[in-house]
From TrEMBL:
Lineage of origin: Eukaryota, Amoebozoa, Evosea, Eumycetozoa, Dictyostelia
Region (Disordered): 31-138
Regions of compositional bias (Pro residues) in chain numbering: 128-138
Record-given protein name: Clu domain-containing protein
Residues in the signal sequence: none
This protein's UniProt keywords: Cytoplasm
Length: 1255
């Protein structure tokens, strides 16, 4: 026995069992046939499945599903480098779509493999079923010579699939996987429909002939076409007198269910293979689907490069020899078994081995490509304890969701002849019995309570897919009756609908589906005509939809009892023949569910009539109401999953293209992303979410799929920051993902991210602790780069969302702790980032930062600076020059001022002092400067003694500067009280006056002339008035007249309002030294004259004829900015400026007026020949652009802002010296631009799309 645990197999375990409701029968073994149940009870026939539906996991009619790789990363930045991907072949659920391609509609019905519990008969009474191949080689038959079977004209499905799975994750890969799976299912459907329709034709009349050489030990008719093998589901013979599922009589319902178990097992197996240490690179599976059509079930599977002689694990001879001969594979199977809660055990009737999973699970090592191929998953999951008939163990199996929840692993071969040689079989049997009791009692009751809660809260309603909800909780749909019997019948939702009503609707729909399939199987359909099926369908529906027969009084109740046996869920009153069940259900919903499950398209008039249900005949169905009867496909979720991943990658590629990540193409491919309109990205994410949700409906234990859904919701939140529901959905998906894979690094990071965004920093920190505690499993080489990229993604460099920045900071805190003693590159980078985030967060965000650091620190401190200080001290002791390149950033400096503390971080405090010693307040924004002087003035003064800029906001601050006078060049004076306080202090006034070059007056309301103290400012060159209030006296003149001989720059900003406004008239011609003048918008002063020395003028003042004054009185003017978007004054008088020899002209006014034409800008511009910079706003058509630009040969910088009327063609022959072009428009076309050899810089703003441009 290679790879087996001999000691474990031989050792009896000591287990303490709690009392059970069930009674364990005596087990005996009387046969070497492993398909003989080890039960002493009689071999009763079971024509009805009282536990599970044939379609155990709900049905989907619609988009092809698909499986593929799933990126499991905390951010899209991981997509290009991560090797972790997931290929899951799993089914879908009860939703309905029709498609003709993976992205559009068709006429094909798809349902997931999970609908395997409803009963179906696939043979007629006059034609006994042929044996199934289940016990020996599975549906992918062991071919004698693989290369002989591959047809030259067909596709090698397996080769294409394996090649794609080995490709690195990218959009192209997932798109190819989508279409490969789609092509396979479409091909299988087309061929399968023909095979089913020809089932009862004579052999020589069939267009697709059966292949006798493909028969296994069990026999049965099999077909090979286009490299796909097809086989009808039938109950196989295990010996000359016994059927595998039915005993003495065939049980085709169980055989149909077993085929679903095969596909479900295959899907779940591969899902777990890939989730566990990338084992998907080592164990491979075929493509597979199931076709339900006209009452029959057909299995389709791609052929594999294996033979009978290539088996190395499991048995292909009916259990005579169970193999386990490869150490590497044995180790992988142990990992997979442990993760799936499949218990290792001794298996085999003669030559045994210790294995995980069932004995007839086969794994081969191909002699062609040396890959491991797994097949035959029909009994992968352990069976439930058989309550009614012993052969239930071969098709009534636990769901994978319940196994995940179960505390111990269970044996797949329990109660069968496969475990006859296992000395621990009694322990395995008792464990399964305990698990069955838990499922049918405690777990079921807990699930019902949750259903009732969801129903009352509105989370569950009549439009919900009940099957999916039950599957997520590990419940088989065969338990619907039992569930209904313990559900509170009086619980209603806001629409007064009952939960027991919804359950009954689901039960009735499934009973009808089973009966309908049985009716179709009796028809012996043939290829020549579909009319018998249509007529039978019409008769079946009319029987259901009529109130004048006994159907809803007697027939439906008998059918429910036959299907669900004693657990039928009907109460005593409902069982009475006088009780009509119609009032207890929604007939419209039942017909919709029934139609979806059987692939039936009905005319809309049927549903309209059902909505207007009256007494008597509900509606009469005629043949024209049957629009179509489609095949229903159960298949893997490869199509939806691959499609969803591809859409997600496309969305994130667009989202993050601006930071140069997650992108394979050149930057110009993404030039249309300069705008802030994210509608395209949002639409891609919504489409991705829809596809992934469809894939997840059946892949209910797929951790990677739920992880990806969580990431989709997280990206949607980033683009819709005000929609908290995305965060809640992301949290839910990620929690589910981690419940199935608690060791997922990236899922934990993503969940921590969501918790931080929800301001739940303690829970976020718990995720990080859980992550860091896995260091014995995950080394720093993996963890640190992953966290680092996540922190960078959410940092202030790339996001304006404060919440996202908090995430970055929280990640950095943990990273810093993780690599505290490291000296590598990451240590310095992380130290740099954490300091930047901490300091930027110091700006107005104490409370948010405090909460995060508080959750990070242990024990918790009470003071913010006490929390931040030790971290900063540790960083700057290690890297003293870490952020010297940031010292000119005002926001950064201000943050440093807030978080520095001489007691908690002396090294950092000293560094900040050095920065402030050499840098004055000029980098600060006006708002930050106000905060600095208003709230942190003393600390600012204690850090530096070399200020060049000073704001004085009160007399108290003046007293501080008396003690420590500074060499000030720029002086801000706030309020008249401060001004008069300064003028009263002669010593400080003389000191300031000796050096100050610029005075800024703000919030002044002066009613009397200031003292002569202003004469001390003998070097003053610039005066700025801003945000002051109108007074009863000419304030501006009273101040500026003190500086007639020195004033070079004058700015008059905005005015406030007073009860008695005063309009001041300013005579400025006497200021012979004035070079620059800025006039803000106000009606409280008027310019009577301009200085002749003026060179630069900025106008926002709405004054008539002002440009005429400028043109006449300012001969030296070379630069003018007119910035008054709402004014019409300038539009009529721009022509005056043609006489000025301008070098720079900015006209930032509303361009809807035809000012270019009215001022005749296409002529008379001889004085503008030296113009080098031009800015125009244009919102009106203009045809004179060519003549206009011809007059500007020396133009080097051009900015045009406008809308669709900005239709000029920019030609190089007119602008030969242009080196910077800036376009602010969402309609301008670059194809209107000629080639510019000297153009060095092109700026495009507000461009929605440049796909049609060709510059």
């Amino acid at each position: 026995m290679v790879g087996g645990d001999t000691d474990r197999a031989r050792k009896l375990q000591k287990v303490t069992y709690s009392p059970l409701v069930l009674t364990l029968p005596i087990f005996t073994h009387t046969s070497n046939n492993p398909y003989q149940p080890l039960l002493s009870s009689s071999d009763n026939d079971n024509e009805d499945d009282d536990y599970d539906d044939e379609d155990d996991d709900s049905l989907i009619v619609g988009d092809n599903d698909g499986t593929s790789d799933t990126i499991v990363s905390s951010s899209p930045l991981q997509q290009q480098s991560s090797n972790s991907y997931s290929y899951s072949v799993f089914g879908d659920d009860n939703s309905t779509l029709t498609t003709s391609s993976p992205l559009s509609s068709s006429t094909t019905s798809y349902e997931t493999i999970e609908e395997e519990d409803d009963k179906q008969t696939s043979s007629s009474s006059s034609s006994p079923p042929s044996p199934s191949s289940h016990p020996s080689p599975s549906y992918p038959l062991l071919l004698k010579e693989y290369f002989k079977v591959i047809q030259k004209s067909g596709r090698d499905w397996n080769k294409e699939l394996q090649k794609l799975l080995f490709d690195s994750p990218n959009i192209e890969k997932f798109q190819k996987l989508t279409f490969l799976s789609y092509d396979f299912t479409m091909t299988a459907q087309s061929i399968g429909m023909t095979i089913i329709k020809e089932k009862h034709l004579p052999l020589d009349h069939k267009t697709i002939q059966p292949e006798p050489d493909l028969g296994g030990l069990a026999g049965g008719e099999k077909f090979m076409h286009r490299n796909i093998m097809f086989k009808f589901t039938q109950d196989p013979m295990v010996d000359s007198q016994t059927h595998l599922y039915g005993g003495s009589k065939p049980n085709e319902i169980a055989a149909s269910k077993s085929a679903g178990n095969e596909l479900r097992g295959l899907s779940t197996f591969f899902q777990n293979v890939v989730d566990l240490k990338n084992l998907g690179n080592n164990i491979h599976l075929p493509l597979m689907c199931i076709i339900d059509y006209y009452g029959y079930r057909l299995i389709a599977i791609s052929i594999l490069p294996i033979t009978k002689n290539t088996i190395i694990y499991g048995s292909n001879d009916g259990g005579k020899t169970v193999n386990n001969v490869d150490n590497e594979l044995s180790k992988m199977m142990k990992i997979i078994g442990d993760n799936m809660k499949l218990k290792g055990h001794i298996s085999g009737a003669v030559n045994t081995s210790f294995i995980y999973g069932p004995g007839d699970l086969e794994i081969h090592k191909s002699t062609i490509d040396s890959k491991f191929y797994a097949l035959d998953f029909g009994r992968l999951f352990p069976p439930l304890f058989p309550l009614k008939e012993k052969r239930e163990i071969f098709y009534k199996l636990f769901r994978p969701e319940f196994l995940k929840l179960n505390s111990i692993a269970l044996s797949s071969d329990v109660f069968s002849g496969w475990s006859s040689k296992d000395v621990d079989k009694s322990i395995h049997e008792q464990e399964v019995k305990l698990a069955t009791d838990r499922l049918l009692n405690d777990h079921l009751k807990e699930m019902v309570v949750q259903l009732e809660t969801d129903w009352t809260r509105g989370y569950l309603n009549f439009s919900s897919d009940l099957g999916i909800e039950l599957h997520k909780k590990g419940m088989n749909l065969g338990l619907l009756g039992r569930i209904r019997s313990i559900t509170n019948p009086f619980i209603q939702n806001e629409k007064n609908q009952t939960l027991v009503g919804l359950i009954l609707c689901e039960m009735v729909a499934r009973v009808l589906k089973q009966a309908y399939k049985q009716e179709l199987c009796k028809l012996k359909i043939h290829h020549q005509s579909d009319s018998p099926v249509i007529l039978a369908t019409v008769q079946f529906l009319n029987r259901i939809l009529s109130k004048k027969n006994s159907f809803w009084f007697l027939d439906i109740k008998q059918m429910i009892q036959e299907k669900y046996n004693q657990d039928h869920g009907l109460d005593v009153k409902e069982l009475e023949s006088s009780t009509d069940l119609l009032p207890s259900i929604s007939l419209n919903r039942i017909i919709e569910r029934f139609s979806t499950m059987v692939g039936l398209d009905l005319d809309s008039r049927i549903f309209c009539a059902l909505n207007n249900n009256n007494s008597g005949l509900v509606v009469r169905v005629v043949t024209t109401d049957i629009k179509q009867i489609r095949p229903v496909l159960k298949h893997s979720n490869m199509i939806d999953r691959s499609n969803g991943i591809a859409l997600y990658m496309q969305a994130t590629q667009l989202i993050y293209s601006h930071i140069g990540r997650n992108r394979d193409e050149d930057l110009d491919q993404f030039i249309d992303q300069f705008n802030t309109d994210h509608s395209q990205e949002i639409s891609l994410l919504l489409a991705s979410r829809e596809k992934l949700q469809m894939a997840s409906r059946s892949s209910t234990t797929d951790a990677s799929l739920y992880h990806l859904l969580g990431l989709v919701e997280l990206e949607l939140f980033k683009l819709r920051s005000n929609e908290r529901d995305h965060l809640l959905a992301s949290r839910s998906y990620l929690q589910i993902s981690i419940s199935f894979d608690s060791g997922s690094i990236s899922a934990l990071i993503a969940l921590a991210t969501v918790y931080s965004l929800l301001d739940n920093h303690d829970k976020a920190q718990d995720c990080f602790k859980q992550l860091i505690n896995q260091k014995n499993c995950v080394n720093n080489e993996t963890l640190v780069p992953l966290l680092y990229e996540g922190s960078l993604l959410y940092s202030t460099r790339y996001n304006n969302q404060g919440k996202l920045n908090r995430v970055s900071f929280h990640i950095l805190l943990n990273l810093f702790n993780l690599i505290d003693d490291s000296t590598d590159l990451y240590s310095e980078l992380i130290s740099r980032l954490i300091t930047i985030e901490m300091i930027y967060y110091g700006n107005d965000k104490y409370s948010q930062l405090y909460e995060m650091i508080e959750s990070f620190q242990s024990p918790k401190e009470s003071n913010f600076l006490n929390l931040v200080g030790p971290i900063l001290e540790k960083i700057f002791s290690k890297y003293p020059n870490l952020l010297d390149d940031y010292k000119k950033d005002g926001n950064f400096l201000f943050g440093c001022l807030l978080v520095s503390n001489q007691n908690t971080c002396p090294s950092f405090f000293k560094k900040v002092g050095n920065w402030f010693e050499n840098v004055d307040v000029s980098p600060f924004t006006f708002t930050l400067a106000n905060k600095l002087y208003q709230y942190h003035f003393e600390k600012y003064c204690s850090l530096s003694t070399n200020h060049k800029t000073l704001q004085i906001r009160s007399r108290q601050q003046l007293e501080l500067f008396i003690k420590t006078p500074k060499n000030i060049l720029k002086l801000f004076i706030f309020g008249q009280d401060t001004l008069f306080g300064l003028l009263e202090n002669q010593d400080l006034l003389k000191h300031f006056g000796a050096t100050t070059r610029e005075l800024i007056f703000e919030q002044m309301t002066i009613h009397s002339k200031p003292s002569d103290g202003l004469n001390h400012f003998k070097l003053l060159e610039s005066i700025h008035f801003d945000n002051h209030f109108c007074s009863k006296s000419p304030i501006i003149s009273m101040i500026i007249n003190n500086f007639l001989m020195t004033l070079k720059r004058l700015t008059i900003g905005s005015y406030g309002y007073t009860d008695q406004p005063f309009q001041e008239e300013l005579e400025l011609e006497k200021f012979d030294m004035m070079e620059s003048l800025h006039l803000g918008s106000s009606k409280y002063y008027q310019i009577k004259s301009f200085p002749k020395s003026l060179q630069t003028l900025t106008l926002s003042l709405g004054q008539r004829n002002i440009l005429e004054l400028v043109s006449i009185q300012c001969p030296n003017l070379h630069s003018i900015i007119i910035n008054d978007p709402d004014s019409e004054f300038y539009h009529q008088q721009l022509y005056h400026l043609k006489l000025n020899r301008l070098q720079s002209f900015k006209y930032h006014c509303n361009g809807k007026n035809e000012y270019l034409e009215k001022n005749q800008f296409n002529q008379g511009l001889q004085c503008w020949i030296g113009l080098s910079k031009l800015f125009l706003m244009v919102y009106h058509p203009y045809d004179g652009w060519n003549d206009f630009f011809k007059n500007l040969p020396n133009l080097s910088s051009l900015t045009l802002q406008g809308n669709e009327h900005l239709n000029c063609t920019i030609q190089s022959k007119n602008l030969e010296n242009l080196n910077h072009l800036r376009i602010i428009s969402n309609h301008f076309e670059t194809k209107r631009m000629d080639n510019f050899s000297k153009l060095k810089k092109l700026t495009l703003q507000n461009h929605q799309s440049l796909n049609d441009n060709s510059y």
